[in-house]
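Fold it.
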Amino acid sequence: MYKVLRSSLLTMYAAIILVPCMIVITGAFKTDFEIYTKPLSLPAKWSFDNFRKLFVESNIAKPFLNSVTVAVFSVLYRDWE
């Protein structure tokens, strides 16, 4: 009985974690219209256009560099203590 309950709870927990992750991952390949009209479906056409916009049209390098800098200094500061 304990094993069945544990397995059921772990399966529900995994679904609670994985379903939103899959929505985000599949949403990265959808058009804006598909995201708003069919958020839980697979993309009709898998498109890398959103990634192109991210790396070409937006300034993602500076925020990424800021995050890496903060992470590196946080790790170094912790090691010095």
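DSSP finds four helices and no strands in the chain.
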